[in-house]
Structure formats: structure tokens, C-alpha cells
């Protein structure tokens, strides 16, 4: 484990990183929000179906 090499790698990555502009941020937020909603709907549907299965929830 070479700490000096690791720190230089982290520094290089931080120098290359940039703050996204508003268009890029809003697109990422929209996709992430859609994913969260999709997972929520899927969980709701599974719970709803398990309510009708004998021995379910």
C-alpha cells in the first residue's frame, strides 16, 4: 500500500473533476428521480400482489 502514490492519484482525479453545468445536473437529477420512482412503484406492486397471496404480508 503506497500512500504517496494513492494521494497523487486522488489529487489527479480531483484536478480533472469539474462541476456540472445546470443542464447536465438537471438531466442527472431527472434520471435519478425516475429511477427512484420506478423502484417505489415496483415495491408497491410487489406489496400489493403479496397482499392477495395466501400467507403473504
Automatic annotation (TrEMBL):
Keywords: Cell membrane, Membrane, Protein transport, Translocation, Transmembrane, Transmembrane helix, Transport. The chain crosses the membrane at residues 28-53. It comes from the Archaea. GO terms for molecular function: protein transmembrane transporter activity. GO terms for biological process: intracellular protein transmembrane transport; protein secretion; protein targeting. The keyword Transmembrane applies. GO terms for cellular component: endomembrane system; plasma membrane. InterPro entries: Prot_translocase_SecE_dom_sf (IPR023391), Translocase_Sec61-g (IPR008158), Translocase_SecE/Sec61-g (IPR001901). It is a single-pass membrane protein. The keyword Plastid does not apply. It is found in: Cell membrane; Endomembrane system. Belongs to the SecE/SEC61-gamma family. Component of the Sec protein translocase complex. Heterotrimer consisting of SecY (alpha), SecG (beta) and SecE (gamma) subunits. The heterotrimers can form oligomers, although 1 heterotrimer is thought to be able to translocate proteins. Interacts with the ribosome. May interact with SecDF, and other proteins may be involved. Essential subunit of the Sec protein translocation channel SecYEG. Clamps together the 2 halves of SecY. May contact the channel plug during translocation. This is Protein translocase subunit SecE. It comes from Halococcus saccharolyticus DSM 5350.
Amino acid at each position: 500500500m503506497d500512500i504517496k502514490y494513492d494521494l497523487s492519484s486522488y489529487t489527479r482525479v480531483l484536478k480533472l473533476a469539474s462541476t456540472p453545468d445546470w443542464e447536465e445536473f438537471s438531466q442527472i437529477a431527472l434520471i435519478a428521480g425516475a429511477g427512484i420512482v420506478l423502484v417505489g412503484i415496483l415495491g408497491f406492486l410487489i406489496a400489493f400482489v403479496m397482499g392477495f397471496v395466501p400467507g403473504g404480508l
